[in-house]
Structures are given as structure tokens and as C-alpha cells.
Predict the structure.
Amino acid sequence: MSIEIKNISKGFGNFSALKDVSLNVPTGELVALLGPSGCGKTTLLRIIAGLETPDNGSIHFHGEDATDRAVRERQVGFVFQHYALFRHMTVFENVAFGLRVRPKHTRPSEAEIKRRVHELLNLVQLDWLADRYPPQLSGGQRQRIALARALAVEPKVLLLDEPFGALDAKVRKDLRRWLRRLHDELHITSVFVTHDQEEALEVADTIVVMNQGRIEQIGSPQQVYDHPATPFVYQFLGNVNAFEGHVDQGVAKIAGLQVPLNYQHEARSGSISAFVRPYDIQVRKAYDDNGALAAKLTYAHSIGPIVRLELKREDNHEFLDAELSKADFDNLNIKEGDSVYLKLKNVRVFFGNNFVI
Amino acid sequence: MKRKASVLPGFKLSLGFAILYLSLVVLIPLSAAFLKTFTLTWAEFWQSVSAPRVVASYKLTFGASLIAAIINVVFGLLTAWVLTRYRFFGKKIIDAFVDFPFALPTAVAGISLSAIYSTNGWIGSLFEPVGIKVAYTPLGVVVALTFIGLPFVVRTVQPVLEDLSAEVEEAAASLGANRWQVFYKIIFPAIWPALITGFALAFARAIGEYGSVIFIAGNMPMVSEITPLIIITKLEQYDYAGATAVAVVMLVISFALLFLINALQWWSNRRLGHTAS
């Protein structure tokens, strides 16, 4: 079932959580709402679920206006960050809940409920826990039970609010792959909220990047990562080094360096904000006539195959982050305190400034 | 000898103090009551505790206390619900009112209640035309016991209701449960233990209540005379052993009932899956 969100606004007191947000979620897609905390992503999800009512705007499910429909009539499965399992019920009863509360004439028979619940528990690979109580389960298991419970009512839409947020790193990685596979099997329209860009990039078909109650960009993981529409998106999707500079007839001057722009801007001039990913900073030992940025290596930190460098610019003493492979770092043969020269690759330029988060 | 390290030191000291304190305040006075009854022969004991007037008082005391505690469970839950679920003007004041029966001297409460509920009092006069007399009847006893027991249920249920996560209710609603189903399948099992505790406290308090009841009860033998009054009467007649005999019966019945309530709570906790974790 497709979801259309039209011009939704929502405020809490003086705080405006969503400002005129519109979004289409096509049938069967897995969409991530990505943004920092307080950007309105959870509020948007809760409005889709009917747990919150918008101040303005409307929600359409499969073309039908569902704005005034109550939660329990929306046929949405909702998965909470902290699982929200019913702790006084067994795992089996938790999953069966949605079937048992149906009015008598649509309620499946006891045998049918049993069959369905075990089918779902098998789907989440936890059938052996059917008789346990939620407090006896691990976080990852609880979240899978919560998902099975949400799926039991055969929802048309699955909504997940930071589903892996309370889990530790290893379980989180396993579960998000598992969620992706599950989605590929069931093809149920799903929206999940996350503040973890890696999670969004790995799992989602479409990423909606949000900031301060507005949508900054909608696109596939590749689009938003490679072609960020705004400085915010660029900064949010990975580590960045920010520079200020200006452009003169298509040539950018950043930190005293002439940087050719790797894509065509109209021959505009003006001040810019420039961003470089840490792995796009090249570190040299010797100065190069074409210009390079002098810096001092203050700290080198090796994590497996990658070495992270903290560099201090000689001109204004600001810090920069760089990343290079262990092999390159060993070849360079530098140590903390050494002077180095930097070149910038793949500089992303946005006109105007004050874009720092 | 190996010393066992513990993050909570002072177990022996604090346990010792707790037992000493309990002994001084509770156990020694109570066992004195038991000892005093041993000055009676078995026949004398049986005669003092099974006199028709005394038996009628047991029925009234335990019956009225039970009814009052049940009323308090219903309306205490409602009050706690209103105080935790809604925001409204004057909520803090109502919240403070709940503790009134705790703070008010019981005699003051008793006198006010009997004045208001008597046939020419503000509320009593409303019941008069329909033929219901409240003050100076067993009904008046129930009113007084309900009054003094109210805070127990409210104060035990209120924190549990406050702690209930809204998410659990939202989850139930998203799974298709209506308001009533959310209440009896989700909220009720969660507050049930607190509700029983509140019931037990209100019940126990009502059994022992004296001050607020004697004014409104009318104290007619066989009709509206409560057991604590029987005890006082016996004391005033210097029948100390007879008084303690009745007291011992009350103690035993109260203990048995509280034990039963605890057992019920333990059983239902297991059944409703309130696990220890």
C-alpha cells in the first residue's frame, strides 16, 4: 500500500516539529527517515501511524484519505525502539495479541491463531522461545518478537521507530541485514526511522534526510551519498572537513589553494562552503609546486586497515581529519609532530556559507 | 575464616536493628495480649469471644471493612486514574485532598461525618426522604471506613499508573485493541498487584479503626457496634482478660485474612507473569 503525505505540519507548544512536509512512499518500498535527534522524523512516523495528529495536512493510504482514521483502524504495524512488549504475557501471547483482540466474527479460531503465531515465530527464528516472558529475552530477541507481533495483524504498512537503536553494535548489524532480507521476502511497504546514516545507507531503498522539521533530500542511498543536495546532507552522511572560501569564475579558492571543481558550476562567483571527506585528503611529505596546505600531524590512530590522522593547519590552527590505508601510512613514514602537505580531492562546494551544523 | 565481600555493608547490624525495632513496637505488645488471655480458662475464653453481641460485632467489623475496601478499590482506582492520566486545573489540590483522611484526627472525621450524614445533616437529609438512614446504622460504619481507607488504594496504584509506559498502550492500539481491551488486557494486569496491596491496606486499616466510626455508628448492641468498641467497653469494666481475648480473636482473623490476600497476590502474580526480573 502506498503512503502519501501532503503538507503535514505539527507543533508542540512553541516548538515546530514538522514544517510543511510532503512525501510519497510507493508500494513495497523500504524507506528510511534519517536525521539528527529532534529533526521530526519520529513525529512524522507517529503521524503516519495515527499515534499523533497533524496540525495541518493530510495522509493518504493507497489514495484514500486516512488523516482522521484511528490507530487501530489504520492496519499499520508499529515497532518501537524499546520493544513495548507486554511483559505479563508469554512470547506466544504477545504475538497472538493482535488476533485475539479482533471482534468475534473476524477472529480466527484457536487452532488458526496457534498456526499463525508459530508461523511468525518461525519467520523470526524464535519459535523455541514461545513460552518465555519478555524479560527473559535479550534485546535482539525482544525486537524480533516485537516485529513478529506487528506482522501478526497482516499490516499494510510496517513502521519502525529506531528499531535497532537500543541494541549493541554487533546485534544491530545482524538485525538490519535480517530486516532487509525479510522485507525482500514480504514486500510490505515499510518506513523506518534512524539517526544512523550507515544503517539507512545499508538497508533502505530510499532515504529521506530530514533536518529541523523539513525534508532536505529524498533519494536512493547512492544519490544522497554521492550527490547531496544540501550541505546538511553532505555533513550528516559522513565525516567531513569544512572550509570557507570563494569561487571566481569556476575556480574555487579554499585555504589558499586553487581547487578545480570536479563538476560544472555556472560561472558564478561568491563565497562558498567547501567540504572534503577525510579519505579525500591526500597527505604528502614534500611540498608540491601546484600548491598544498601545510599542516602538522598531531595524532595518528590506527584502526585495523585504516589510519585516522588528526592534522592541524599551519595557517589558522584548525583541525582536519584525514583517513588513509595502513599501507599508505607506512609508506609515508611520518610520525606525530611531523610537518606534512595536504591536497584536497573531490571537494564539494556549496554557495553561501554558515552551513556548519 | 573467609570474609564475604558485599556491596551493601551492614547486613547484620541493620537486620538486628530491624528486629529489635519490630519487637519493641509490634511483637512484644502483641504477645502481651496473647499472654494476658492465658489467665482465662478455655471456657471463660470461649464465653467472652462467642457471646452473641461480640459475634455480631465481628460480622459488622469485618463485613463493613470488606465492603469499604472494595468501594475504595473501585473509587481509589478511578481517583488515581484521573490524577495520573489527565491534566486539569486544581489537580494538585485534589491530589492533596486524597491524604486528608491520613492527616485528620479520626475523632474530627467521625464527628463531621456523623453531623453531615445524620437525618438532618447536609447529605443525610437527602437520603431521608427515600427512607435510607446513613448515620447511626451499619451503613454509617461503611461510610466512615471508606473515608479512612481511601488514600491507601490511591497512593499504591498512582505510582504504578504513572510508570506505565505509553508505548505499551500505543502498541496495543496499533494491533487493533479498543480502549476497553487496552485497559483490561494491558493496564489492569500491570496495576493488579498494587490494587491488591491497596485493598489489603485499606481493609486492615478499616478493621482496626475506632475513632471515626464510634461517632457515626450509633453503637447499638447487635446492630451497629464494632469490635474495637466491645474491647474498649470491656476495658472500662476492668475486664482486661476478656478484652484481650476478643483482641486476640481479631488479631488471628486479621492475620489470616492478610495472609490470604498475600497468597492471592503471589498466585496472581505468577499467573499474570510478573516475573522477578
Q: What stands out?
A: Chain B touches chain A at residues 165, 167-168, 170-178, 181, 185-186, 189-190, 272-275, 277 (CB under 8 Å). Chain B has a mean pLDDT of 87.
